[in-house]
Amino acid sequence: MNADSPHLDLPRCPTGIEGLDNILDGGFPRGSTILLTGSCGTGKTTLGLEYLVRGANAGERSMFLSVTEASDRIVQNLATFEFFDRKILDDGKLVFIDVPILYEKLGLSKQELTPEDIDLLITAIVDLANTLKIQRLVLDSVTSVCFRIRHEEKIRDFILKLGKSLSDIDCTTLLVSEIGPQADRYSLYGVEENIADGVILLGNIQRQGDLLRTLQIIKVRGATHSRAQYVIEITPLGIFLAPFLKGGGRTSTGNG
Ligand SMILES: Nc1ncnc2c1ncn2[C@@H]1O[C@H](COP(=O)(O)OP(=O)(O)O)[C@@H](O)[C@H]1O
Ligand SMILES: [Mg+2]
């Protein structure tokens, strides 16, 4: 893509995480679908939440769709971060949806979702986002939903339709993807990363007895960005990025 590409002028959705916005040249392209991938404990849920809370604090309506963790537990953990104020929940700026409850309401009880079930689910999510005028959405995790879709073709369809429908209402979406520590691709089924507009990889690196967290932007369509690996630190003030300094000490890389 050359410097005159119109895509580079796409409006941005700042993540509110300063270090990340710096390397994303202002934020995610608005309306895009980004796969946030990494193994357990790499900070996916935390990054997703900070993205939503920072947006809500700035007046944008945000929605967290939780598949595996109950939302009251997530809120409990959120309360340990200084940038979080319960007021955004009371004001409806940040909304939590438990996906298992959504499944139940929609009557999706079979382990494997049929194409009709998938359409129902997409419609329910998009209707919610539309009604609540949601501008930022996190699905944690897309992997758990895909686990019930099972077939690559149907997964491709699900992510394409969901991403397109949310993009049409100008919602910028993070799909959390769970992979193993030694995974050689960015998602469980290998199709998710090809359909998403962007991929951000979180990982762990063992260094001198410490397990460092890392972040790397693999791709973001319509944006110029660094592809360097960064070290991230999760603190009560939020996520901080620092350049990863190579060399020195015993280093072995895990996922990422
Ligand atoms: N309030 C907090 N302050 C500092 N670190 C935190 C806080 N909340 C979570 N963390 C860190 O984040 C880690 C969990 O990250 P998480 O986002 O749940 O990972 P993932 O979703 O990738 O499994 C915890 O192990 C902890 O170290
Ligand atoms: Mg998580």
Report on this structure:
The protein has 256 residues and is of the alpha/beta class. The protein has one domain: Rossmann fold. The chain has 9 helices and 12 strands. It has helices at residues 18-23, 44-57, 71-78, 87-90, 99-106, 115-131, 142-149, 152-168, 192-195; strands spanning 12-13, 28-29, 33-38, 62-66, 94-98, 136-140, 172-178, 198-207, 210-220, 229-235, 238-243, 251-253. Strands 3, 4, 5, 6, 7, 8, 9, 10, 11 and 12 form a 10-stranded mixed β-sheet that branches. Helix 6 runs parallel beside helix 8. The longest helix has 17 residues, at 115-131. It starts with 11 loop residues before the first strand and ends with a strand. The model is unreliable at 1-6 and 248-256 (pLDDT under 50). Magnesium ion (MG) binds at residues 44-45, 140.
